[in-house]
Amino acid sequence: YAVLGVALCFFMYAPWILRSAVCILGASAGSLIATAVVFAIRDEILQFAKHVTSFILGPFDPSIKVANWLERLLHKYLPPDAHRWARGRLGIAVTRVTDGKQLILSDFNSKEDIVQALLCSCFVPGLSGYLPPTFRGEHYIDGGLSNIQPMLPDSSDVTLTVSPFSGDADICPADPPCSLEMVVGTAVLKFSKMNNFRILNGLYPTDLGVRTIEQAFYNGFKDAIRFLQINGEFNGD
């Protein structure tokens, strides 16, 4: 939800940054945000995020068919030629089941390719089910399990990174300085009480009330505003 707040902030105050982005990447739920940015379907995703809070276990409640909802949403809002717009510009990170390696899927031949790639990237084993979805005949699972900060090869110096966890990402929560850090894939995160809570709550949600979601969304929005102001890119008109 914090990353969605970042995306909305950029839509409102720095759309030229999104338009000029050569490729927009995301893993797990971040792949949905990346898709929302490319195709401007962010409002529908936020609406669903609020809807699931009425269930005890949020998106992991067995009465919610998240995969079915995603398929319906994507088929409804993605244009028939979505693959032409997304090819090479939308990067969906997935984890290959056979070897645990992260791959960035961006060569799409149809709208269905995009839908299947997103279902793979958002599939959390045990929580989403037990049989992973497939993309072109191969099984993949949550892209964040292999690397929460997907990156194209040799692009670290030109990539704007966003994270809901405090660390070395360009846009992330501004927690107080911390002497301990942990490396997760290519991301460096602060080993702090607040960050540990964010990570645990991301893996095992304990508070999914509407107010909590709105606060996370607002925090991400503020993080993005701060980044734009620091870099002289904020247009508040």
TrEMBL record:
<feature type="short sequence motif" description="GXSXG">
    <location>
        <begin position="26"/>
        <end position="30"/>
    </location>
</feature>
<dbReference type="InterPro" id="IPR033562">
    <property type="entry name" value="PLPL"/>
</dbReference>
<feature type="short sequence motif" description="DGA/G">
    <location>
        <begin position="142"/>
        <end position="144"/>
    </location>
</feature>
<dbReference type="Pfam" id="PF01734">
    <property type="entry name" value="Patatin"/>
</dbReference>
<keyword id="KW-0443">Lipid metabolism</keyword>
<feature type="active site" description="Proton acceptor">
    <location>
        <position position="142"/>
    </location>
</feature>
<feature type="domain" description="PNPLA">
    <location>
        <begin position="1"/>
        <end position="155"/>
    </location>
</feature>
<dbReference type="InterPro" id="IPR016035">
    <property type="entry name" value="Acyl_Trfase/lysoPLipase"/>
</dbReference>
<keyword id="KW-0442">Lipid degradation</keyword>
<dbReference type="GO" id="GO:0004806">
    <property type="term" value="F:triacylglycerol lipase activity"/>
</dbReference>
<feature type="active site" description="Nucleophile">
    <location>
        <position position="28"/>
    </location>
</feature>
<protein>
    <recommendedName>
        <fullName>PNPLA domain-containing protein</fullName>
    </recommendedName>
</protein>
<keyword id="KW-1133">Transmembrane helix</keyword>
<keyword id="KW-0472">Membrane</keyword>
<dbReference type="GO" id="GO:0005811">
    <property type="term" value="C:lipid droplet"/>
</dbReference>
<dbReference type="GO" id="GO:0019433">
    <property type="term" value="P:triglyceride catabolic process"/>
</dbReference>
<keyword id="KW-0378">Hydrolase</keyword>
<keyword id="KW-0812">Transmembrane</keyword>
<dbReference type="GO" id="GO:0005737">
    <property type="term" value="C:cytoplasm"/>
</dbReference>
<dbReference type="GO" id="GO:0055088">
    <property type="term" value="P:lipid homeostasis"/>
</dbReference>
<feature type="transmembrane region" description="Helical">
    <location>
        <begin position="16"/>
        <end position="41"/>
    </location>
</feature>
<dbReference type="InterPro" id="IPR002641">
    <property type="entry name" value="PNPLA_dom"/>
</dbReference>
<dbReference type="GO" id="GO:0016020">
    <property type="term" value="C:membrane"/>
</dbReference>
